[in-house]
Amino acid sequence: MIEHIRDHVIPAAFSLLPANMDGREARVMLLAIGLQESRFKHRVQIGGGPAHGFWQFEGGSSAAVGGVLRHPATSKYAGKVCDALRYRPEREAIYEAITDNDTLACAFARLLLWTLPNALPTNADEGWAQYREAWRPGRPHPETWPAFYEQAGQMVP
After folding, report:
1. Within 10 A of 109 (CB to CB), how many other CB atoms are there?
2. Structure confidence by residue, pLDDT tens digits, 27-44
3. Where are the domains of the chain?
4. What's the predicted TM-score (pTM) here?
5. Assign residue 141 a region: left if phi > 0, alpha if psi is -120 to 50, beta otherwise?
6. Is the dihedral of CA 48, 63, 61, 13 positive or negative?
7. How far apart (Å, rounded) are the C-alpha atoms in residues 94 and 52?
8. What is the Cα gyration radius of the chain?
9. pLDDT band at 57 (very low <50, low <70, confident <90, very high)
10. How far apart are CA 43 and CA 96, in angstroms?
């Protein structure tokens, strides 16, 4: 599954975004975060939690989907992604759609990282800090991150 994400989903998502959002660091982070959040196995949060999609977005008004749709740095890009994929740029519509539309979920994951002021990380420690800042996991698991970040780094040339 992770090879499919790397070879098909991520390129499809980047085709909908400005070229300057693409790059090795972005691809590594998207893979590492997907591994951390869902292992690319779970489209709905285990245990009945509110997160959807491989990147485990929550849909509440202050959560990631709404944030990407409203943030000044990402709202116009999110609208273009929604338009290209034929979704209304509305929080609930996107929240439901990212459960099964991996390209949409990946584009929103990249846009969420775009809301942060720092450059994309080049090592696991910086990656962990950015992941925590953007995703704000309720129960973070720092023990799994280094291996996932390393795996992602090995998969992206």
Report:
1. 28
2. 999 999 999 999 999 999
3. 2-155
4. 0.96
5. beta
6. negative
7. 10
8. 14
9. very high
10. 11
